[in-house]
């Protein structure tokens, strides 16, 4: 008696015996032949139809090639009795061979979506090399039918889940559904619930943004009220855990302001981010230009702001807000706490420059000194208004440079 075999065709081709050992099928046409027999297992294939589909030659040449392929396939699989593969007119799969296509369809017919989802690994004959001719057309049509069946199956499984049910149990199904249908709201909503269950608000927002981006190709399409409500609930829950008022989260006018200043487009109704919980976070506020009118160096102040932001961003483990996000506070008198809440950071870095005449200038910036600019450090400020470090006032009430004399070029800070 021949050994039982399992042929997996949904995804990369696999053939295994009852002990789980791999069985090698050498010919790509033999794999294509198995896919044909698995998809139409009940009807059976005539030898003429198979020969035309796989070889496209004259009937006599095609049938001869099919006969040779079947002989080699029987050797590869160990099913050597010719009668097990049909007769002179029809070709069928032997009874001892089970395919994942048959198991997938069985799960669908029984209404067992979870079982069907566990069997699905990907497209029919994923990565198949035969991409031309009649077989390529047949493969594309068969894949389309299976994708439709799988998408409907996975969506039913997600919709049948109760609200109080553990969402992580359905995460794999949701991921498979999105691979088949990137516009599936059921799939994206389930993954948002999974991220919220893990208290990963950043993943919730990313998933929502991905869904909105996928919808962008459809004119007039927008997320449903349920999607928006789920996003709001996840952000509100995260805010309550870190003690941030939810009323602060609703104010997003600052994004519109920065778009006007820098001519940058943004998504409608953007959401503000919460402070980073697992890392130190800061923002470099635009440096002030204190130079007199003719000697104004606004471009220099902006350049130093960008350089400082870039240098801070290179520090491992430190989250630094983007320069474009900070520029909205240029030439404003907003207090430190509001700026920190708006940018979602815990600390602020401030600085200023002052240029006098053509050649002499002095700069006040965090821990920076060049030969042309005498350096005066500014404050690293907590959002509460307190200072962590900065220059020391001199006896006349002014500020002393962070580095002077022979030690210039060295960084000195006071905590």
Question: How would you sum up this structure, described in words?
Answer:
This protein has 415 residues and is of the alpha/beta class. It folds into three domains: 5-142, Arc Repressor Mutant, subunit A (Orthogonal Bundle); 161-247; 276-407, Rossmann fold (3-Layer(aba) Sandwich). Helix content is 44%, strand content 11%. It has 15 helices and 14 strands. The protein has helices spanning 28-39, 47-54, 59-77, 100-110, 113-119, 133-160, 171-180, 185-197, 201-215, 225-242, 246-249, 253-262, 298-313, 323-326, 336-343, and strands at residues 5-8, 14-17, 45-46, 90-91, 97-99, 280-284, 288-289, 318-320, 347-349, 352-356, 360-364, 374-376, 380-381, 387-389. The strands form four sheets. The chain has a five-stranded mixed sheet. The chain has a four-stranded mixed sheet with strand order 7-10-11-12, covered by helices on one side. A three-stranded mixed sheet has the order 2-1-5. Helix 8 (185-197) packs parallel to helix 10 (225-242) and helix 9 runs antiparallel to helix 10 (225-242). The chain starts with a strand and ends in a 26-residue tail after the last strand. Mean pLDDT is 78; it is low at 247-256, 263-271, 359-378 and 392-415.
Strand portion: 5-15%
Largest pleated sheet: 5 strands, mixed
Order of SSEs: EEHEHHEEHHHHHHHHHEEHEHHEEEEEE
CATH level 1 class label of the largest domain: Mainly Alpha
Overall number of strands? 14
CATH superfamily of the largest domain: Winged helix-like DNA-binding domain superfamily/Winged helix DNA-binding domain
What value does the average pLDDT take? 78
How many angstroms does the end-to-end distance come to?
Answer: 83 Å
Kindly report the CATH topology of the largest domain. Answer: Arc Repressor Mutant, subunit A
Class per helix and strand makeup: alpha/beta
Low-confidence stretches: 247-256, 263-271, 359-378, 392-415
